[in-house]
């Protein structure tokens, strides 16, 4: 039976109800020992552009300011919270926050472009598996009454596999750079494995004894030395042996792991026999499962996908997770999170600290029944 | 009410559009004064001619202020998010051909494909401390194209004119612009990437997707479309 008081769409939930739900959620995190933090809504665009690249413009609102330069309406809290922690945070630290984030929705005009997020972030160097489990379990327990589906993954396993490939550092760096862009990652793999034909222009360039003969004038900032350096890199790449079919298959095997957690662990251990470079990451996965189980999570039924979050969660580089509602497939995830160690390094100007966190959308929690 | 037809207000696009309609028995004419942006339609019932900048026609169609409009595919796709849901293509008119392309300096002998551009962009950023800049006025189309093809480490810089000159002036390293023959690109020592065709554009007759036309207007529209031989 449909409860007559139950809203039919997320937009039917009043702002007051969402705010109250956000307060309740933040209160739970505060109770758990997190310090409440606030961040500015206007964020300098340069920092976000540096991290996310031009794509962020399609997702964030840009405002221009003749004095401060381009500003963005906060598209997430993670970046300003990390900056705050790196500037003057004590260790270890647990933070919570609630407030609006702003996202342009060109591809999904039916989705909200302004909504509340409540987050919980843990900065702790001691036991990453425990910190992962702590964040997941807190969100899991809060969301338990809503009967959501949890999905988990671990970008770190794919990264470890790339790092361990027996091929040139340049190729590994190129693959790492595109871990979050599955299509380009695939194209690079095919090229490095000699599976895609060498473009005619590339073949001609490599055969040429004087590639700059018909180059014409050098214009722009990119210098002749930079062009020469890349030609040299292309020659080295052409001389390097291709990535073997067996190694490509192992990467594919990792990307295709999609099981319950214990079965996924089993499968990854099998793969690690032929690809020992992932042993550390797989051991981390195992330790996380133990830590999750110790916090009462039914890991035997928990889903794991090695490629989970690869195309949408670009700063995560380890554990990733999300909670979605099967009864409402049209809704975005109610909660998402993950580990973002590399982000703290990028924003920390030489310093870094392991960090993991998650956000809940109180508007969706209230829509789905919230505290009742 | 009447049906409102938006047509580019000047130049070859206007003349060619007038010719295209004329060849199908619909005469378009500027009103007596050359300075006034209004016109007359003969041979199509209650249709009003509105002369507009080609760049404004997509927005006017979307806002429902005109029912039909002639403009470039490039402008509709750049201006209207989810354009397929908002306008219908009635006919491609066979003129105003232009391609939106990505071009880099001719001297970049190591860069012929998007794959090369991506690798060069990574090296450029490491060397210069900022991302490789691409000058364009087609921000959305270019960004979507590069995202779809997984090119990273670039930034778009706005250029509303003389875009081919930005590389020499060192305000950009590459450009994305409309070209018909490629002559201007060559003259500015630029070359098109082998897989750098973002969009083929030509003058196109669009119809706003609206459900709220009166019966009389819908009859006018149907009759006009029949006369033009489009549906």
UniProtKB/TrEMBL annotation, chain A:
- The answer to whether the entry has keyword Transferase is yes
Keywords tagged on the record? Glycosyltransferase, Transferase
| Binding residue positions for L-histidine | 76-78, 103, 117, 121, 310, 315-316
Name this polypeptide is given:
ATP phosphoribosyltransferase regulatory subunit
Reading the lineage from the top rank, the first entry is Bacteria
Q: Name one GO molecular function term.
A: histidine-tRNA ligase activity
Q: Which GO terms describe its cellular component?
A: cytoplasm
What are its GO biological-process terms? histidyl-tRNA aminoacylation
For whether the record's keyword set contains Manganese, the answer is: no
Q: Which Pfam families match?
A: tRNA-synt_His
Q: Which residues form the Class II Histidinyl-tRNA synthetase (HisRS)-like catalytic core domain?
A: 17-206, 235-358
Automatic annotation (TrEMBL), chain B:
Domain ATP phosphoribosyltransferase catalytic: residue ranges: 54-226
Molecular function GO terms recorded: ATP phosphoribosyltransferase activity
Any GO CC annotation of this UniProt entry: cytoplasm
Q: Which reaction equation describes what this protein catalyses?
A: 1-(5-phospho-beta-D-ribosyl)-ATP + diphosphate = 5-phospho-alpha-D-ribose 1-diphosphate + ATP
Q: Does the keyword Cell division apply?
A: no
Pathway noted in the entry: Amino-acid biosynthesis; L-histidine biosynthesis; L-histidine from 5-phospho-alpha-D-ribose 1-diphosphate: step 1/9
E.C. number, please? Answer: 2.4.2.17
A GO BP entry is: L-histidine biosynthetic process
Instruction: List UniProt keywords, sorted A-Z.
Output: Amino-acid biosynthesis, Glycosyltransferase, Histidine biosynthesis, Transferase
> What residue ranges carry the coiled-coil annotation?
none
Q: By its UniProt entry, which Pfam families does this protein fall under?
A: HisG
Q: Which Gene3D superfamilies match?
A: Periplasmic binding protein-like II
Q: Does the keyword Glycosyltransferase apply?
A: yes
SUPFAM superfamilies to which the protein is assigned, alphabetical: Periplasmic binding protein-like II
- What is the stated purpose of this protein? Catalyzes the condensation of ATP and 5-phosphoribose 1-diphosphate to form N'-(5'-phosphoribosyl)-ATP (PR-ATP). Has a crucial role in the pathway because the rate of histidine biosynthesis seems to be controlled primarily by regulation of HisG enzymatic activity.
Write down what this protein is called.
ATP phosphoribosyltransferase
State the organism of origin. Answer: Pelagivirga sediminicola
């Amino acid at each position: 039976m449909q409860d007559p008081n139950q809203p039919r769409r997320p937009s039917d939930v009043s702002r007051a109800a969402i705010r109250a739900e956000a307060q309740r959620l933040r209160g739970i995190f505060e109770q758990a020992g997190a310090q409440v933090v606030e961040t500015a809504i206007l964020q300098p665009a340069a920092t976000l552009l540096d991290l996310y690249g031009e794509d962020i413009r399609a997702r964030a609102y840009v405002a221009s300011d003749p004095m401060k330069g381009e500003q963005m309406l906060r598209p997430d809290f993670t970046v300003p919270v990390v900056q705050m922690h790196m500037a003057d945070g004590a260790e270890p630290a647990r933070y919570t926050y609630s407030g609006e984030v702003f996202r342009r929705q060109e591809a999904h005009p039916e989705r909200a472009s302004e909504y509340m997020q409540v987050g919980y972030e843990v900065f702790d160097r001691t036991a990453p598996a425990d910190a992962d489990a702590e964040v997941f379990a807190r969100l899991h327990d809060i969301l338990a009454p809503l009967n959501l589906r949890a999905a988990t993954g671990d970008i770190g396993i794919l990264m470890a596999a790339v790092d361990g490939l027996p091929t040139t550092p340049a190729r590994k760096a190129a693959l790492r750079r595109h871990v979050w862009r599955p299509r380009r990652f695939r194209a690079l793999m095919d090229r490095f494995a000699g599976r895609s034909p060498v473009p005619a222009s590339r073949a001609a360039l490599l055969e040429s004894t004087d590639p700059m003969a018909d180059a014409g004038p050098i214009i722009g900032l990119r210098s002749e030395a930079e062009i020469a350096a890349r030609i040299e890199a292309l020659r080295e790449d052409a001389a390097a042996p291709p990535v073997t079919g067996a190694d490509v298959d192992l990467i594919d095997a990792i990307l295709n792991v999609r099981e319950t957690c214990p079965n996924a662990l089993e499968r990854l251990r099998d793969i690690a026999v032929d690809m020992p470079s992932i042993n550390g990451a797989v051991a981390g996965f195992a330790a996380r499962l133990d830590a999750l189980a110790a916090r009462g999570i039914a890991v035997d039924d928990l889903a794991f996908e090695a490629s989970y979050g690869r195309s949408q969660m670009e700063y995560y580089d380890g554990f990733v997770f999300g909670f979605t509602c099967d009864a409402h497939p049209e809704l975005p995830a109610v909660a998402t999170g993950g580990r973002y160690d590399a982000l703290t390094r990028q924003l920390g100007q030489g310093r870094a600290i392991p960090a993991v966190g998650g956000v809940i959308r109180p508007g969706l929690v209230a829509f789905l029944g919230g505290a009742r | 009410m009447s049906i409102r037809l938006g047509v580019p207000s000047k130049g070859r696009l206007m003349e060619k559009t007038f010719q295209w309609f004329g060849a199908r028995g619909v005469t378009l004419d500027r009103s007596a004064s050359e300075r006034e942006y209004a016109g007359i339609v003969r041979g199509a019932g209650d249709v009003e001619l509105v002369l507009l900048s080609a760049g404004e026609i997509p927005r006017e169609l979307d806002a429902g202020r005109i029912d039909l409009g002639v403009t470039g595919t490039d402008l509709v796709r750049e201006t209207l998010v989810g354009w397929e849901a908002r306008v219908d293509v009635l006919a491609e008119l066979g003129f105003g051909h232009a391609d939106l392309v990505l071009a880099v300096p001719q001297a970049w002998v190591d860069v012929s494909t998007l794959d090369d551009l991506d690798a060069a962009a990574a090296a450029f950023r490491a060397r210069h401390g900022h991302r490789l800049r691409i000058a364009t006025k087609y921000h959305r189309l270019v960004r979507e194209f590069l995202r779809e093809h997984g090119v990273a480490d670039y930034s778009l810089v706005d250029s509303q004119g003389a875009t081919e000159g930005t590389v020499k002036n060192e305000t950009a390293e590459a450009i994305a612009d409309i070209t018909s023959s490629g002559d201007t690109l060559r003259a500015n020592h630029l070359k098109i990437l082998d897989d750098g065709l973002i969009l083929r554009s030509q003058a196109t007759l669009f119809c706003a997707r609206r459900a709220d036309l009166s019966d009389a207007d819908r009859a006018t529209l149907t009759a006009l479309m029949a006369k033009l031989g489009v549906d």
